[in-house]
Specification:
The protein has one helix and 27 strands. It has one helix at residues 324-327, and strands spanning 10-25, 28-52, 57-82, 87-112, 115-142, 149-174, 177-204, 210-229, 243-261, 265-282, 287-306, 309-320, 338-341, 349-362, 367-388, 394-417, 422-439, 442-459, 465-480, 488-504, 507-520, 527-540, 546-553, 561-567, 570-576, 582-589, 601-608.
Length: 609
């Protein structure tokens, strides 16, 4: 199901749901909903990456063919009851079941200047299933006088997953020559349980100020286990690769928040103190205990100092503790040329985010300006460290690096040009990221800059015809501290047009065109992808409650799944198959007499062309 993210591969999908709400009286409501969905995806993908260490560069090519099936069932419920004018109780619950299977074949070759050093041929079959549940119970009591509000919340949840994989690996080494065949299975099980309780009391102060005093206590108890051996049974287990690992994290977080809200000004300022302990270790093995305590300030301010002008500022900080899979220290050999293990000694990472925004709108000229600036600093960032062996195999683990910086700036301007009957929109964007990842024991600093500019023209009179055209240019620079020869520049350009024609209330014709061009000095060829689609809709029955539409996607059949990225110690290009050109017939019937049909029934039939 496409929720906005890119979809690679040929996908067959379906979904269905039910929703029921019962309200016997005002402010006493019960709701339950169910959503079930399933997908089957066939992926044909080619990946090219250029990797580097502190003294060499090498290339890696992979061809992957994979079929995956996923099924999910979700049930959610909530209940609210106002016991009286002062007391309220609410309950929420979410329950999910999922299962799936995978069948894949992959061939990966590592080279230096077109000379192969190793090759891995892998066939894998696997299946997985999981269950998650989360519940919350909240009680609210309003008082008169100086203590107007008390809130108590209880939370509990679990997340359990089980996967079974079996693979055949043929590893070929070329210098010296060797062939290694391995046929093994692996079972992974993760059980996570979490509990939390939060209490908050509000005190009324002078001149409209309020203060919240809160206390939150939480417990996370996680377990990860793995068995590995030679199929078909479990008679030939590899004890050195078995994992039975646990993580227990406790934390207490008292907080203080001063706040005030008026028609023009909103202010929140305070801090939390988070103190906790993380204990992890192998069953019947040495354990590691890590205690921490941080002061976490937070502040937000918004001022509508004019009817058309508003400025805001915010600052927030938080702690992110390492997960059970990031901590477990036993090596995973499923990919013999990319061995992975966790790190028991990871510390929590602490991030600080600050931002300022400004908005101006002139209701007479319909001119608007919006500007935003955001920055994040993360201390003890959890990143990946890589060690590349002489045969180009890799060993990967998690480490804490000293810091990580991210920044983003955006500016948007819109104004009408009345003589031309147009609206003009200009958008500018800047992003910055500087991160550290160790390669062969030496820190590599990866710095990325992205500059983007977008220009759009729209017609102002949209009674029957609406048209917008524009273009966007995106320029990215990637810099590496230990292998400057791989410093890279991306030039991505795009052009777009949207047209909509409604001669009357019964007919509508729309057309969309997006042309993207990807350029980069580190890849072989520039790529141009034109995407065109058109839709014709007819509305009928009383109040136009029914409609039928014919929509054609990717008219020229030029779409391709292309992704180019730069991060850590590699540049990467990924090409994937996607559905390409297809047509869709849709029928909609609106049950409600008013609205846009969001509560109606919709039937779609897809025909690939």
């Amino acid at each position: 199901i496409n929720f906005g993210q890119p979809i690679n591969g040929l996908v067959t999908s379906g979904a269905g749901g039910l929703n029921y709400t019962y309200e016997p009286r005002k402010n006493n409501r019960f709701n339950v909903s169910y959503l079930g969905n399933g997908t089957k995806t066939y992926l044909d993908q080619q990946t090219y990456s250029r990797n580097f260490t502190n003294n060499q560069t090498f290339e890696r090519e992979q061809n992957l063919k994979e079929t995956t099936v996923d099924r999910a069932h979700g049930l959610s419920t909530n209940y609210r009851n106002d016991l009286d004018s002062a007391k309220q109780i609410t309950f929420t619950g979410n329950f999910n079941l999922n299962s799936g299977s995978t069948n894949s074949k992959a061939a990966t070759t590592s080279m230096i200047e077109n000379l192969a050093f190793n090759r891995l041929d892998n066939n894998t079959t696997g299946n997985n299933k999981g269950f998650s549940a989360a519940t919350g119970l909240n009680f609210l009591h309003r008082f008169h006088g100086g203590w107007p509000l008390f809130k108590l919340g209880l939370e509990a949840g679990t997340n359990q997953s089980l996967s079974n994989d079996e693979w055949n690996n043929l590893t070929t080494l070329f210098n010296p020559s060797a062939n290694i065949m391995v046929n093994q299975f692996q079972k992974n099980q993760t059980i996570e349980r979490n509990y939390a309780a939060t209490g908050t009391i509000t005190r009324r102060l002078w001149r409209g100020f309020l203060v919240d005093a809160s206390l939150r206590a939480q417990l996370n108890n996680d377990q990860y286990s793995r068995t590995q051996g030679v199929p078909p049974g479990e008679n030939s287990l590899v004890d050195s690769l078995a994992v039975n690992f646990s993580r227990k994290a406790t934390a207490v977080r008292p907080g203080f928040l001063l706040k005030k809200s008026t028609d023009k000004i909103k202010f929140h300022g305070g801090f939390n103190v988070e103190a906790g302990q993380i204990q992890n270790g192998l069953i019947n093995g040495a354990g590691v205990s890590n205690s921490y305590a941080y002061v976490l300030p937070r502040l937000s301010f918004e001022n509508e100092y004019n009817t058309s002008k508003r400025i805001g500022f915010r600052y927030d900080s938080r702690v992110n503790t390492p997960s059970v899979t990031q901590l477990q220290p036993i090596v995973n050999t499923a990919n013999p040329l990319s061995l992975f293990r966790g790190n028991q000694y990871l510390k929590p990472e602490v991030s600080h985010t600050t931002g300022v925004n400004w908005m101006w709108f002139d209701q007479f000229s319909f001119t608007s300006i919006f500007a935003n600036l955001t920055g994040t600093y993360t201390k003890d960032k959890i990143n990946l460290a890589r060690t590349v062996n002489p045969n180009l195999g890799q060993e990967i683990s998690y480490v804490n690096v000293t810091d990580d910086y991210r920044g983003e700036a955006n500016f948007e301007f819109s104004t009408p040009v009345r003589k031309l009957g147009l609206n003009v929109e200009v958008a500018l964007g800047e992003t910055y990221n500087r991160g550290i990842n160790p390669v062969n024991g030496q820190n590599n600093t990866n710095t990325n800059y992205t500059h983007q500019a977008e220009l759009t023209f729209k017609n102002r009179n949209t009674d029957k015809v609406s048209v917008s055209v524009g273009g966007v240019v995106k320029y990215t620079e990637a810099q590496y501290s230990i292998q400057r020869s791989l410093n890279n520049k991306y030039y991505n350009m795009g052009y777009f047009a949207d047209a909509n024609y409604s001669p009357n209330e019964k007919w509508n014709l729309s057309f969309t065109a997006d042309v993207s061009r990807y350029q980069s000095k580190s890849f072989n060829n520039a790529v141009t992808i034109p995407l065109l689609q058109a839709e014709l809709s007819h509305y009928f029955m009383k109040a136009n409650r029914a409609s039928i539409s014919l929509k054609v996607f990717d008219i020229l059949n030029k779409n391709t799944g292309l992704q180019r990225i730069s991060e850590l110690n590699y540049l990467q290009e990924v090409r994937s198959n996607i559905i390409g050109r297809y047509a869709m017939i849709s029928f909609k019937y609106r049950l409600s007499k008013l609205g846009d049909g969001s509560g109606g029934m919709k039937i779609q039939v897809n025909n690939k062309r």
